[in-house]
What we know:
By secondary structure, this protein is mainly alpha-helical. It has one domain. The protein contains 13 helices and 2 strands, in the order αααααααααββαααα. The protein has helices spanning 2-16, 21-24, 27-42, 45-51, 55-83, 86-110, 114-129, 139-143, 152-158, 177-188, 198-215, 227-242, 268-271, and strands spanning 166-169, 173-176. Strand 1 (166-169) and strand 2 form a beta hairpin. Helix 1 runs antiparallel to helix 3.
Amino acid sequence: MSNCTSRISYRWIAPLLELPVRYVLSPRGTALAIFFLYLSLSVSTVAAAEIDPLEEFNRPTHAFNQFVDRLFVKPIATTYRNLTPRFVKRGVSNFFSNLDDVQVAANDILRLDLPAAATTFGRLAVNSTVGVGGLVEVASPVFGLRKTQQDFGLTLAHYGVSSGPYVVLPLLGPSTVRDAFGLGIDTLIDPLNSVDDIATRNGLRIAQVTSYRASVLTFDDLVIGDNYLFYREAYLQRREAASGASALLGFSFGMEDEGATPVYDDGFEDGFSSDFGGLAIEGVESH
């Protein structure tokens, strides 16, 4: 087993050494490099058998999702990133972040975390009014109401529900049995579902997916080694950290560090968003 683990570790570490220097010569890049090395040391065949008994099903699904992403989603997101003015991208991202606060607030209440719920409701009130329907992030920089990430999968984890096996959902990407169930509950309280006009609702969904995919395009260059293993380990480690079960080496990669949504640019610092949760694209982690 140790020999197998060594082979897996080398397969992860070797491509890491080939990453462009500009990606690792920054605080966040250094943190990510350490994180990826941590993943390479944490993989074992025994653990894989326990957390991924459905690998035989998951790998083809992952490959299908990657194909859809390469053929449709990524080209559209790349065009959007390259041609859309920065302030427009920021506004669109802020708008969907504001909608996301609805489900965050609901899960704060379910967790009986009233201070967090008050903060999230405050963000909704401020950004929906002063922030012109959420297009401008006002709550964090002006009132100190910082963005947090929460969903029903994490609420279940809060009450001691185990994650269950890892599963890759068609078009929805990496998940677990618990998080897949949680995603279904979160969908019920998604504000976009209240939009009656089908064309408008679908248009908003496309804009949401495109905006998020554009924000994580730089992440594609950081995928190393076995593509499937990389996404699996990154997803599981992130969800473990988010549920409070792990300090993840003391690093926090979520957008709550800045209290806002990603800033778009061609550079690593601005272009990378590490929030892998929430949208139906492989390469963009879902819950």
